[in-house]
Amino acid sequence: MDGLVPGRRGRGFTLAELLTVVGLIAMLVALFLPVLGRIRAAAAAASCLSNLRQIGTAWTMSLSESHGRFFEYAWYTPTTPDVAWNGYWTGALDRNKVWPETLLCPAARDPSESDAGHGYGNATLAWTGRFESNGSAIRLNDKTYRVGSYGYNRWLTAGGAFGVGGRATGLTDVSDPSGVPVFMDCAYADARPLNGSPNSPVQPPPDLSGAAAAPGKPEHWKFILARHGRGINVYRADGSAQWVRLEELYLLSWQSEWVRYRLPLPRE
Question: What DSSP state is assigned to residue 111?
């Protein structure tokens, strides 16, 4: 019988031993979950950077096709809805075969289902054109609209705010492309932040969730959101894409006359 005594049962776990094993498993799970969360967050951030590079490549191709000329700001053309829909940066992505999925950061894929926020997203939700007006850049009609997690620096439009007197029409008028943000994680499709100054900084959002971003609120609240830790991903005019800490976003040059400084923001 290979050493087993007939009629004697094998010894089972006592209750104390069973509880010890369960406790060890629970402890291992508790130790592993934060690591798994960090791995998922890192993967989402890496995928987001890849999306931004694809979007940036399409932007560069569009500029090349237009001989370096910036987009016109065509957001809302209700009588000719195709003009806004096919124009601006969102239309340029379609023309250059950027798939709709590329517009979605893995950390903010799902749009809000409520019209209370007028289609704005936040740190964990994408923006949607579902609640916009027909004939806009992100909503063509009742059935066709766009959803995304990224926004465009609206100062980068023809005559927007670059070059001498802010009359620049193309990329050649941007003197420091490595410092100019083009696309970024954002709660809406574009943002036109005001500058302020080191002695009179812009108003910080109440928190870093992005939930306070809404029509009529400060434009910079659209991208001051803790989507990837305490920072967002940014694609710059020189073709690079990096994670930028929220406090350092105003150290970038959003337009030609920009005064750079570190943003004072709430702690969380």
Answer: B
- 8 Å CB contact between 48 and 106: yes
Angle value at C-alpha 96, between 94 and 97, nearest 5 degrees:
65
The domain limits of the chain are 15-251
Q: How far apart are CA 82 and CA 137, in angstroms?
A: 9
The pTM for the full model equals 0.85
Give the tokens for residue 12. Answer: 């089972």
Alpha carbons 79 and 95: distance in angstroms, whole number: 22
**H or E segment and range at residue 152:** strand 150-153
Q: SS3 for 196? A: coil
Phi, psi of 233 (to 5 degrees): -90, 140
The mean pLDDT values, 10 residues at a time, for the chain of 268 residues are 52 70 72 60 87 95 88 92 94 91 96 86 96 96 96 91 74 88 97 96 97 96 97 96 98 94 90
Q: Where are the alpha helices (DSSP H) in the chain?
A: 15-65, 81-86, 88-95
The size of the chain, in residues, is: 268
Distances (CA, A) of 194 to 33, 132, 167, 188, 220: 41, 24, 18, 16, 7
